[in-house]
Amino acid sequence: MPRRQVTLSLVSATLLACALAGAALVSRADDWQSLSLFGLLFVLAAGSEMLSFELRGLRLSGSFLALVLAMALLGPAPAAVMGVACSVVDAVISRRSIDRTITNLATFAVFPLVGGLTIRALAGDFEVGGSEALWFGAVVLTTFLLANALNFAMVAAGSWFAYDVPPRLMLRSFVTALPSEFATALLTASVAFTYAYLGIGSIALAAVVLFVFLYIVRTSIAADERGEELEQRTRELASLQMGLLSTVLQTLSMRDAMTARHSAAVARYSREVAAMLGLDAREQDLIHTAALLHDIGKFILPDSVLFANRKLTDEEWQLIKLHPEQGAKLVERIEGYGPVAEIVLHHHERFAGGGYPAGIAGEDIPLGARILSVADTYDVMTSRDSYRRPVSSEAALAELRRVAGTQLDPAVVDVFERMILEKGVAFSHTDEVDFEAELAFEKRVADYAQPRLAAA
């Protein structure tokens, strides 16, 4: 056993011995007169231990209700004994190690003793039919919260010292559990108040309420944990899928650097246009990603077609026209990438109709695809990597204006022109830094693991 755990065990054993000695000193004969009440509260505490659950490493159960009632209705000594007995039940159920068992025994001996002494000091001995029932209930409520804080402090300190559990994590669990603990504290105070009038019947009613409450909370925690596990697996799957797709794009880059750099340039232009059109950050990312992948379907083309520096035959041209569909089929296999695939599919449609593959027109073409089409056309004309002689930016913009309304969306052309002239956005096809900056897939994995927006 590590030295720190040995030290904690020794300190805990000392605390346990002191608490039991203190309980013996303050024990009074009349504390033990109501053995039936002691037995009922112990059954309630032990049963609650069997329905206990963990929340981020912090173990929660309803035994606190029974222990605080024992502090209030029986006294500090019976409460301490009951706490130790509950800790033994917990050790048997959870099969805890010796060091953790000793620590729990000490904790469950100390806080019931301290709580019982606090109630006795503030409210005196409980009397059935007493006139101070409301004050007594208020004292029980306050003691519940204080004892709960003492219990947490002892557990958190031991976990940090001996097991390196971060205090911040423990505190987060404690804060998360506070609403349910406060509700249990109110229930405990109510039982203490009504016990003066209903006797043991009030405890039986509280037991029913507590067990139902514990069952609901335990079920909710389990559902939340399953949801977190599913979310984590979704992120891992998205990361894997994006990694595979990134590998395909990098492979295409090695095979055809011109197409890869062209895709990166189209991505940069498209994101800027999307931002100027007022689309939100997620939609901008969606369009940027679609632009990076818009020519990935060219992976199917043979080198004789992909690198041809001659006029293509009709058969070869028909093969070229398949790349949007092939790219979309590849992209849509990634969970949640339907909107991206739709943009990839339609980036060669014409605004007046007659494009491919669907021949749709106007606003039937997704906005992302209309943006890509303008950026694609501009970069093909101005890039030195293109198959044709590049033209100046001014000549390319003039050509975009000429085909606006037939091939391209006039509104997008207008925004694109303002982006070039006013914002000076550009892409260097010879700069690897520009290329790698646009390929930064990893930072989008987490975002795209979340539910998708519909395509614009």
Automatic annotation (TrEMBL):
Q: Where is the HD-GYP domain?
A: 237-432
Q: Which CDD domains match?
A: HDc
Any single GO molecular-function term of the entry would be: transferase activity
What Pfam families does the annotation carry? HD_5
Q: Which UniProt keywords apply?
A: Membrane, Signal, Transferase, Transmembrane, Transmembrane helix
Q: Which residues form the signal peptide?
A: 1-23
Listed InterPro entries: Cyclic_di-GMP/3'3'-cGAMP_PDE (IPR052020), HD/PDEase_dom (IPR003607), HD_domain (IPR006674), HD_GYP_dom (IPR037522), HDIG_dom (IPR006675)
Q: Report domain HD positions.
A: 259-381
Residues crossing the lipid bilayer are 64-93, 105-123, 135-157, 169-189, 195-217
Q: What is this protein called?
A: Putative nucleotidyltransferase with HDIG domain
- Organism classification: Bacteria, Bacillati, Actinomycetota, Thermoleophilia, Solirubrobacterales
